[in-house]
From TrEMBL:
Function: Broad-specificity nucleoside monophosphate (NMP) kinase that catalyzes the reversible transfer of the terminal phosphate group between nucleoside triphosphates and monophosphates. Has also ATPase activity. Involved in the late cytoplasmic maturation steps of the 40S ribosomal particles, specifically 18S rRNA maturation. While NMP activity is not required for ribosome maturation, ATPase activity is. Associates transiently with small ribosomal subunit protein uS11. ATP hydrolysis breaks the interaction with uS11.
Name recorded for this polypeptide: Adenylate kinase isoenzyme 6 homolog
Species this chain originates from: Komagataella phaffii (strain GS115 / ATCC 20864)
The entry's keywords: ATP-binding, Cytoplasm, Kinase, Nucleotide-binding, Nucleus, Ribosome biogenesis, rRNA processing, Transferase
GO CC, one annotated term: nucleus
Binding site for ATP: G16, G18, K19, T20, S21, R118
Catalytic activity: ATP + H2O = ADP + phosphate + H(+); AMP + ATP = 2 ADP
GO term, biological process aspect, one: ribosomal small subunit biogenesis
Major place of residence: cytoplasm
Compartment list: Cytoplasm; Nucleus
Domain of life: Eukaryota
Subunit structure, as described in the record: Interacts with small ribosomal subunit protein uS11. Not a structural component of 43S pre-ribosomes, but transiently interacts with them by binding to uS11.
Pfam family, one: AAA_18
Amino acid sequence: MTSRLYPNIIITGTPGCGKTSHCESLVESLNDELRSHFQHLEISKVARERGCIDGFDQERDSSIVDEDKLVDSLEPDLREGGKIIDWHCCDVFPERLIDLVVVVTCDNSVLFDRLSQRGYPDSKITENIDCEIMQVILQEAKDSYAPEIVIELSSEDLETMDDNVERIIQWINSWRENNPDGASNELD
């Protein structure tokens, strides 16, 4: 049986809600000892680097990821632990290898402004705001993982992001105290 000494965390949410900013801030905010054991995995980049792109969706202006190939590629990394997964999708990652799922949400007017600043076309802005309104990603997380590991954190500004990052760091410290020998990578 193998175990990981550091938790794997998914930070997910609708595009524009602040996933990547949260991940980057989290890594920067960890103390030196912890920082050396954590790695931010921006999944869109990882998928390209590891040859897990299946095509391109012209309508959505985004790559199509071969999720099975991606997960197979990532399994050894996740078994090591200490991965901070940054992607708009969370249900593809095996529950046995995930310790916390953070769904970052934000007010629709803030989301609209962020997506507009990125130059998204109106159709893509509307699709993402509808996704946020319907809480699609939050529901996906709740349907895919044990309720006790899924949390929703709102992110409208730098202050709330800083508070969220501090909360995640406190969770990491508690996880390590509660799992001094690590967590199993196998199914119970």
